[in-house]
Design a protein that fits this description.
Butyryl-CoA Dehydrogenase, subunit A, domain 3, 6-stranded mixed beta sheet, Acyl-CoA_oxidase_C, 2 domains, 20 helices, AcylCoA_DH/ox_N_sf, 54% helix, Butyryl-CoA Dehydrogenase, subunit A, domain 2
Length: 581
């Protein structure tokens, strides 16, 4: 396969062609980046070209049957044999079998395997190894390798997720990817500059996931908005005809915040992508200063964008009534793709707790008066404020500061509660676990403040070169997003700011005004996403608006409609009706 084919089968276009997922996705999104991120120049020269040209197909095996997010608990071992200069990969238990890698069951013939490295009788933690899984000509599994498909899932059933077991499989020493950690010929282990470098591939994938969530949400919103412009239901004024469903304010409230989110998520993912490239460039120069910041923001953004996208797709489905429940509407397929992302590449709660761990360190730095990186600089402002409850201001800048104050206030309380629990006899680890609900909510608040701030900055940057008319629409989009996030955080705003009932009423009025302002442009905005009908894959969202004709054509395709009387009538129903039960 040529590189341009990867673009053809990737992203939203790929979902239009391969509706149940692409078995080569992990090859491009994880296998190739793993070689670049973990391989030496010599290893990249050996493997990357062949993989890029698809002379070999790879996958990435980390998760096991018995362990997922807790990487230190992985059981697969790679033991170095000094005599033969080889690693022996082994799955000591059933729970050590690799489980879930995309494309593993039938597509891939190579794999980057994450395993516990042992040399000289010591364990050196998780390291990456390239392993040949199948013969390049016959595709038969290599000796000592057990491989297969894990079975059907809620979605993505075209990806052939697999399981993988090793029975003392030998690979040469050069197959350990040694850009970061190294193992010398005599078995001496050389630590990487930072253990976080081992997880660079996962950070890359989380950046990609944020972009994917924006794309999938835009797909669902396009279907729902177009359908809502065609569907008519109920009267607003009794003496007027039925109105388009999209004219009902409740329908606008279901769809337009999701529309705004799809745009904010896309812009923030672009921001995160720039940050990733900058940090990666700094890493190549040996500068690790901003790596923890990137890790923390990528973790929480992955958690929030996947959770919100999954909820948004489901809300769009329900906004389309009974027709949205049809498989052909494609909400089912889209939801299956999106909800999977809430779990793979880091379960969302665990990722929020990883961000919270970083925030706790940043809080301690702020208390000591140390310089803070950009994403947490608001902590210094919070600590310097004499009033712990911020004066409410419903401007966009005021909402950003208020959400940052909520995050900082929650972080302060979490830190205090951990300290109190330690004083009562708990260890630091026990106290952290007992405070974990607060910590996860703190990371959630931190991320939402970042999204509002980042979205505002990115849209203002776009407005600088846009026409006045377009700039007005763009600003309405992020105003709506900010108002919606603030109203959904009312409990926290009441705790940490001076917001009053009249302030809340005014904020609600602003949100409703933003909905009304977006109404005339809603169809034009989703049309600007430029998603072809084949990508949407839904009669409800077709560009021509012929919803009912297309639904009827889809219904006629049912196998049950291919004969006037189904054979089940003669076999089962007629005998039942004629029986004397």
């Amino acid at each position: 396969m040529l590189p341009h084919c990867s673009a053809l089968l990737g992203g939203l276009l790929g979902t239009g062609i391969l509706k149940q997922g692409n078995p080569l996705t992990v090859h491009y999104v994880m296998f190739l980046p793993a070689i670049l991120g973990h391989g030496t120049p010599e290893q990249q020269a050996e493997w990357f070209g062949r993989a890029w040209n698809c002379e070999i197909i790879g996958t990435y095996a980390q998760t096991e049957l018995g362990h997922g997010t807790f990487l230190r608990g992985l059981e697969t071992t790679a033991t170095y044999d000094e005599r033969t200069k080889e690693f022996v990969l082994h799955s000591p238990t059933l729970t050590a079998y690799k489980w879930w890698p995309g494309g593993l069951a039938q597509t891939a013939n190579y794999c980057v395997v994450m395993a516990q490295l042992f040399s000289k009788g010591q364990c050196h933690g998780i390291q990456p190894f390239i392993v040949q899984l199948r013969d390049e000509e016959s595709h038969v599994p290599m000796k000592g390798i057990t491989i297969g498909d894990i079975g059907n899932k809620l979605g993505m059933n075209g990806v052939n997720n697999g399981f993988l077991g090793f029975d003392h499989v030998r690979i040469p020493r050069k197959n350990m990817l040694m850009k970061n950690a190294k193992l010398l010929e005599d078995g001496t282990f050389v630590k990487p500059p930072s253990q976080a470098l081992t997880y660079g591939t996962m950070m890359f994938v989380r950046v990609v996931i944020c972009r994917d969530m924006a794309a999938y949400l835009s797909k669902a919103v396009t279907i729902a908005v177009r359908y809502s412009a065609v569907r008519r239901q109920s009267h607003i004024n009794p003496d007027q005809p039925e109105v388009q469903v999209i004219d009902h304010l409740t329908q606008q409230y279901k769809l337009f915040p999701a529309l705004a989110k799809s745009i904010i998520f896309k812009l923030t993912s672009d921001n995160l992508w720039d940050m990733y490239n900058q940090v990666t460039s700094e890493l190549d120069k040996g500068d690790l200063e901003r790596l923890p910041e990137l890790h923390a923001i990528a973790c929480c953004l992955k958690a929030i964008t996947t959770a919100d996208a999954a909820a948004g797709v489901e809300l769009c489905r329900m906004a389309c009534g009974g027709h949205g429940y049809m498989t052909c509407s494609n909400f089912y397929g889209t939801y299956g793709m999106v909800t999977a992302a809430c779990t793979y590449e880091g379960e969302n709660t665990v990722l929020l707790l990883q961000t919270a761990r970083y925030l706790m360190k940043a809080w301690q730095q702020a208390q000591r008066g140390q310089e803070l990186v950009p994403t947490v600089q608001y902590l210094a402002r919070f600590l310097s404020s004499k009033n712990r409850r911020m004066d409410w201001d419903d401007s966009i800048g005021g909402i950003v500061r208020a959400l940052q104050t909520v995050a900082a206030g929650k972080l302060r309380l979490a830190a205090e509660h951990i300290e109190q629990r330690q004083k009562r006899g708990a260890t630091l680890e026990e106290a952290t676990n007992q405070t974990s609900i607060e910590l996860a909510r703190t990371a959630d608040a931190h991320c939402r403040a970042f999204l509002v701030q980042s979205g505002c900055e990115m849209i203002e940057k776009g407005c600088a070169t846009a026409s006045p008319e377009l700039a007005k629409v763009l600003r309405t989009i992020y105003h709506l997003y900010a108002y919606d996030e603030a109203l959904k955080s009312l409990g926290d705003l009441l705790r940490f700011t001076t917001i009053s009932e009249s302030d809340i009423n005014r904020l609600q009025a602003k949100l409703e005004d933003a909905l009304t302002e977006l109404r005339p442009n809603a169809v034009g905005i989703v049309d600007s996403f430029d998603l072809p009908d084949d990508v949407l894959g839904s009669p409800l969202g077709a560009y021509d608006g012929n919803v009912y004709e297309r639904l009827y054509e889809e219904a006629k395709k049912s196998p049950l409609n291919q004969e006037p009387v189904n054979q089940s009538f003669h076999m089962y129903l007629k005998p039942f009706m004629k029986s004397s039960l």
